[in-house]
Amino acid sequence: MTSGARRVYLTTTGDNAMVETSRDDYLRVRESAEKDRCGRHVLVDAPEDADLVLFVGSRESDFWDVRRHPLVRARREDCFLYHSEDAIVPFLPGVYPSLLASDSRLGRAVAGGYSAVLHIDIPHLEFDPDAKYLYSFRGSLTSHPVRGRLRTLQDLPRGYVEDSSDARAATSAHAPGTHRPLAVELMRSSKFCLCPRGRGPSSWRLFETMRAGRVPVIISDDWTPPPITPSWDSVSIRVRERDVVEIPKRLEEREPEAERLALAARLAWEEWFSMETFFHRIVDWCEAMRISRRVPERCARFVTALSLAHPRKFRHFVVPRLRRSLRRAAACF
């Protein structure tokens, strides 16, 4: 094995029953490992042969099944998790696409891409200097307040914003359905694609846009950038949620850079988030966290648990588990 190479045991507790796509995430990461073009890290069949144990997905939304797994208990310092749910608390160190900046304490977690985008049929779209739209968005305007602010950009001369809240099917390119070719065609006709946050601080749309070779306009104050090089400023534009109304003016000012940014976005997707690099980057990031670890994991995990005192997280993670415990206790009587 080459310097820096790691033997990885890849596993999951997910089955898509309680946490949608958790098993699918595992299958996609495994496929990425099989198609890895970097060739540094290798999969092993047994955990005792591994330097690093990577869980992908979980059966439960609070990762309780992973947290209590025998491997985690026995090898806590070597275990990491990739999980793509919108609402997360990094109870285990790992890679979380929808990571809040406030949850990246002690260097235990980093943001990443969504494995689901690996299986979307999105071509690399040739940049059109005469594209019909300066910017575009088609999707729900109700999943987060910042999306509602996009209504102020509707009916402007060089933009396209459509609210699909009443549509049955999801409308980004990742969801299957007849709308998918329409989503790709809208990206083809645009120079910039608006990528507002939804239920989570990140968005599948961001990585769809990069894969298509268009410039993502990231609208999410809580978004945590995945650690890539060059910087995200060289492949995207970021706008504060309160500044949505200024987007047309800002994009007109940046329009001369659009083609360069679009090409850089596509290259960054190939280098960091494509099928041939996805597994490699996750392992690299996990190994970097292990090397730079300042506090033993057996202690650091309790610091993360303190964030459950936040009312929103308490309702999402603690209350459901208390209810399940009470139901089980009641069933014993």
Into which percent range does the helicity of residues fall? 25-40%
Uncertain spans, ≥5 residues at pLDDT below 50?
A: none
Quaternary structure state of the chains depicted: single chain
Radius of gyration (Å): 21 Å
**Shape field:** globular
Terminal Cα span: 57 Å
What order do the strands of the largest sheet run in, or round the barrel if closed?
Answer: 2-1-3-4-5-6
Count of separate structural domains: 2
Write the layout of secondary structure elements.
Blueprint: E1 7-11, H1 22-34, E2 42-43, E3 52-56, H2 64-67, H3 70-74, E4 79-82, E5 94-95, E6 109-110, E7 133-139, H4 145-148, E8 159-163, H5 180-188, E9 190-196, H6 204-212, E10 215-219, E11 237-238, H7 247-254, H8 258-272, H9 278-291, H10 297-305, H11 311-331
Parallel strand pairs: 1-2, 1-3, 3-4, 4-5, 5-6, 7-8, 7-9, 9-10, 10-11
Structural account:
The chain is α/β, with parallel strands linked by helices. Helix content is 33%, strand content 14%. It has 2 domains: 7-112 and 278-331, no CATH class; 120-272, 3-Layer(aba) Sandwich (Rossmann fold), CATH 3.40.50. The strands form 2 sheets. It has a 6-stranded parallel sheet with strand order 2-1-3-4-5-6. The longest helix has 21 residues, at 311-331. The N and C termini lie far apart (57 Å).
